[in-house]
Amino acid sequence: MKKKILVTGGMGYIGSHTVVELINAGYHPVIVDNLSNSDKKVLTQIKQITGISPEFYEIDLCDKVALNIFMEHQQDIAGVIHFAAFKAVGESVAQPLKYYDNNFGSLINVLRCFEERKVAFVFSSSCTVYGQPDVLPVTEEAPIKKAESPYGNTKQVAEEILQDVAKAADNYQIVSLRYFNPVGAHASALIGELPRGIPQNLVPFITQSAIGKRGPLTVFGSDYDTADGTCIRDFIHVVDLAKAHVAALQYLENNKAVKYDVFNVGTGKGYTVLEAINAFDKANGQSLAYQLGERRAGDIEKVWGEVSKSASVLNWKASLEIDEMMRSAWAWEQHLQSAE
Ligand code: NAD
Ligand code: WQD
């Protein structure tokens, strides 16, 4: 029998790619999502990619009653991958309660569903918990800096909640994955990121600008202490990231004594913003128009991850390079345009 894995937020950007990888690895994903930042079409696309239409329940995880009714019929869930959360940093500054409500409410409600049963639980954390690290590449042991935003704070506090829960009860085995900067899309160009409004993140802005949906890109800051003056990030292909979740589940299955652990999920390599733009141009035969602008408030100057712990313990390593991240991001943007 295929193992059932509850994937909260499984219709979203990272969740949908993970559902594909779970199916590829022989699991039976069950998606719960309220579609607050995703589209039902994703189910058809996943079916096109895998030949399997995953089980899907449109439920708001903050709705305890609906969640409990759903769980009564799901006695055989062996694992949970918890993606569901709001993630827009700027919006979280303007509407902190919306973020605290949803990101904590959904997490606590899902954890409560497993108070009486064993579960392997994988949580979407973020390299945002490190702020500007003092030492690079940043390791999992680096100090957690005061969060720059309510969104970042939800990740820090969620990690604390998970550690407390793992310590208090024997039935939870928990892994937090600290993602660096997820970009790109599935090679089929059938699933990808669906940014609402003006993209705040670099790669969606690049692709929307290249396709003519937006004006020229503004590079936020060119006077940082880096080789070309622009910020450095560790971009990670979303398909590699999706596979890290499968690796984390398998790690928990094979190591029943593990109660809580945390892993960086990146490539271990940093690229400046200008290098990322060049990679986009090179991969897609483009010459993206951009202008150098002011720094963006709250930006981290440079961050990339030490990923040897994920390699040795999870047996996972990123394999896709920046050219493939940029190629697939562009193919996805073109798919979106042709579907309009
Ligand atoms: P996304 O918005 O594409 O996916 C999140 C999904 O969760 C959406 O489909 C949304 O409809 C659903 N959702 C939100 N609240 C819900 C609720 N109360 N009940 C049910 N469903 C709900 O985001 P993503 O980029 O796929 O991110 C997934 C996770 O990874 C999030 O927790 C995010 O904070 C984290 N993360 C993302 C990034 C990034 O840059 N994308 C980086 C680090 C961590
Ligand atoms: C990358 C670089 C920008 C847009 C954010 C969240 C973080 C995490 C990932 C979830 C920066 C520059 C961007 C533009 C630009 N999410 N940039 N022009 O800032 O690393 O992280 O998303 O946990 O919490 O803060 O990613 O893609 O926004 O920016 O020059 O139009 O690109 O200044 O240097 P970031 P990003």
UniProtKB/TrEMBL annotation:
Pfam families: Epimerase
Catalytic activity: UDP-alpha-D-glucose = UDP-alpha-D-galactose
Domain NAD-dependent epimerase/dehydratase residue range list: 5-266
Cellular component, GO, one term: cytosol
Gene Ontology terms describing biological process: galactose metabolic process
Protein EC: 5.1.3.2
Pathway per the UniProt entry: Carbohydrate metabolism; galactose metabolism
GO MF entries: UDP-glucose 4-epimerase activity
NCBIfam families: galE
Protein name, as recorded: UDP-glucose 4-epimerase
Organism the protein comes from: Mucilaginibacter yixingensis
Lineage: Bacteria, Pseudomonadati, Bacteroidota, Sphingobacteriia, Sphingobacteriales
